[in-house]
Amino acid sequence: MKSINLNSRNIMLASVAVFSILFLITLLGMLIPLAGDATLHAKWFNDRTVLPTLVLMILLGVCLLLPDFSQQKIAGIVAAVVVVTGLCVALKPFNSLPIDATLPTLAFAMLAVFYRGYKSAAMPGSMQIKIRRVSPHIIHLGIVLILIGIFVSTNTRIDGSEVISKGEIGNYDGQPYSVKITGISGRYEGAPLPEYPGSSYATSIDFELYSGERLIDRDTVKFITDYKWGQSYATNYVYRSLTKEVFITTKMVEGDLVNLYMRTAPWISAVWGGILLMSIGIVLLMYTVGTKTGSVAEGVSGETGGTEEKRRKGRKEKPDDTTGEACRVAEAVDEADIDGKYEAMLREELEKLKER
Questions:
Q1: How many CB atoms lie within 10 A of CB 152?
Q2: Contact present, 39 and 45 (Cβ < 8 Å)
Q3: How many domains does the chain have?
Q4: Burial of 352 (C-beta count, 10 Å sphere; 0-12/13-18/19+)
Q5: Which domain holds residue 133?
Q6: Is 70's pLDDT higher than 50?
Q7: In terms of pTM, does the model score above 0.85?
Q8: CB–CB of 149/143 below 8 Å?
Q9: Does pLDDT of 308 surpass 80?
């Protein structure tokens, strides 16, 4: 049986194939709602894209280890990652199956990025060359951090609902935030209907968001009852920080009582940190590549300019023999023409003498 040859070309081919699978899953998820009345939520995409994403992370780690490790060692490392993943799924150290199944692979990819980045920085060369070598791995690190933030924040988010009266503070179990209702007001909106002064009734809930005793933000959400279409809906509030994301909306309003829903997604800092690292890596890579290209272009243009100048000097220093040669040819042509005319004149004179 022929063994699989691990090289950069095969790894790239496998990565393109996995990317194609991810694209087809995303495209299918976008087309299904258009073909029917089905509504696909984020869970549908998460359940179907998690495995291809983990395969991409393994391919990234393998590609980074290829220059320094043999195929047998890389195969052993990948096998160890698979075994650790199985142990995490069985032992449930994080009490979350998605996190237990994904963190070993993401940790392997991150360690591979750190290793390759260190090796690239340790290689001899100028600072500009080292930055150019390390900048792609900064981008890789940003990608891994973004995936860690997405997986962890999606599967460890905390949510809950509390019924809060006007002027009181509502506390949510397991969440570091609390909400105080500061005002409730309502009015009719839209064109009037036979039964109502307006087509909908909008209730505005003013609130304050606290982290412990510290006031973070003030805002308003609305609960709207649409009489024309016979349905109710609410506006949303989102607060984003470097560490968490807070989502608040209204589920019910009755008099001075409001049922507020709050969802907190931790580890958002990993996503923002990954985006920042990717941006830094891209800027550094573009700067170093542009600088090197510019210096090479200047050198080439300098050499070209010097060569052209030498050519011009050569033209000035070298005597031009073509002009003299052309003059000699022209003189010979003129002499031949004169001789021909002289012979014609002699013939004419001879003809005249014969006629006499």
A1: 23
A2: no
A3: 2
A4: exposed
A5: 8-156+272-291
A6: yes
A7: no
A8: no
A9: no
